[in-house]
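If you are new to this repository, start here. Below is one unmodified record pulled from the training split, so you can see the exact layout before writing a loader.
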Amino acid sequence: MIRARGRTVLSGALLAACALLGTQPAAATARRGVEVACATRGLAVSSGSGSRASGYRVVGLHVAGLTCQTARGVARQVAEDLLRNRSLSFSDASGFSINQVTCSGCTPKTEVAISYPRGSIEMSLTGSALTVPSTTPFPVPQFPVPPNSAPPGGSGVLTV
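And here is the target side for that same chain:
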């Protein structure tokens, strides 16, 4: 990064490298409405070993209006929560969806989309938690949050 007139500017070489890789640098913020791909390297969590091993890997991560650094942190937390079969909780989220995508001959994916007042995060994860029954591909929300229960301004915690 280069400092110019008190502002941090990404170097041309870094931006060119990210463009070639199709990813956004972690420090960059995607403009609202413009979706960019973020790097997923290292976004994997696991537990156990051998036949008792389980884990999740983030294989796709897209962000609009937020930084890739924020999206990577949220993706890591989602993977941890799914692995531990915990409820998913998102600070300041205004919407949330989770889907299990399956097809014959391919690896099933869990797709999570989270919307915030200033942007959104979409992620795809592969893997499974050992403690999740085979008939339930992801944790089932225990207490759905009514849409009008958020404090004014759309802030608050959304837990499912």
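Two things worth knowing about this chain: Helices lie at 12-21, 68-83. The CA atoms of residues 90 and 137 lie 20 Å apart.
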